User: Fold this.
Amino acid sequence: MDQMSASLDALRARGRPIPMDAAARQAWARQFNALPAMGAMGASLDLSDETLVRVHLTEVRPHHQGGMGSAAVNGAVIAGLFDAALGVAGVIQFPGKLCAVATGIVSTARGVAED
Assistant:
């Protein structure tokens, strides 16, 4: 098992199931992905797993990259993806209630670049 699979399995073990069936999760993600902000960010919400909320950067574009001439994804982009995933997790776990990320701290130990 690779490190990514092990990390996702650990999250799955601690997570709450999303209170929707597969068809409802797919419809919800499709509606969320149609938001202009998701298109502008180049991101895609993935609710295919019954427990995990994932937001993917579908393609690393030049405006996603940080400074210093590297191909690493800018920390602000990573923070935006993180904020979207946390916000979605709150909204789908507590339907009908306002949910927002009050404080988000993203620390990166190394650059993240497209595979």
Summary: The helical segments are 3-14, 22-33, 36-41, 75-93. The beta strands are 43-46, 54-57.
